[in-house]
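For reference, the entry.
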Amino acid sequence: MFASVSAQPALAQYADGVSATVELASEERRRGLGWSDGDPVVRGTLSIPIVEGLSLEGTAVSLWHSSRHGGADAAIDLGAAYVRQIGGWRFWAEGRYHLFPGASHQGYGEAGAGAGFLIGPAAIDLSGSYAPRQSAIGGDNLYLAASAAMGLPGTPLTVSARIGRSSGDVRNPVSAMRLRPDGAYWDHGVSLDYLKGRWFAGLRYANSSIDGPGAKHAGASLIGRVGLSL
C-alpha cells in the first residue's frame, strides 16, 4: 500500500506538491480482514503538504454494503501525518478518523507512529496504531506491525513482507468483532509491486491466524491491484 509495506501516509510526505492516486483492486483487505466482502473496489488517495514533513491525507474506498461495517457503501479515512528523515532513519506519526458513509454509528479514530531504517538494499519498518475506547469498535484496539521491503536491482519491482498483531480490551463483544472477530490475532502477507512512471500494479498474498466462526473474509487471499499516480 503503496510500493513499500511501510505506512503509506508516511511515504506520501516525500512528494513536492499535492499528490493523488486512483486504483482498482480485487478486494479491500486491511490487517488481514476483508472490508469489501471479497468484492472488487475503487480506491482514491490524496496528500496535501502543509509545511515540510506535515501533510493532510485522505483515502476513499468503495465497499458495496460491507457486512463488516454495518452495510457501509464506502470507507473514508481523513487525517494528518508528519514525517522526519534523520540520516538513514525515517520517523512518522499520524492521526486518522475512519468514516463509513451509508452506515450509522460506525466511525472511529486512531493514532499511530513508527520508525524505518535502511539495511543495505532493504528498508525495515516498525509501527504501531492505537484506537482508544470507542463504542463503534466495542472497546479499544492496538495494532503492532513489522515490515520489510527491497527493490529488485535492475527492475521496476519491489518485494515486501509484513506481520502484525491486533489486540485490545473488549467492552462490547458484538462491536469488537469488527476489528477482532476472533479476539487477539496475527496477520501476515507478502507483496510484489511494479512501478514505472505514473503506473503501478501489485499482487499481494494476505492471511491471518483467525479461525472458527470469525474466519469469514479473514483467511488466505490473493489480491491484485492496478493504478495511476496523478
Residues 28 and 226 are 13 Å apart (CA to CA).
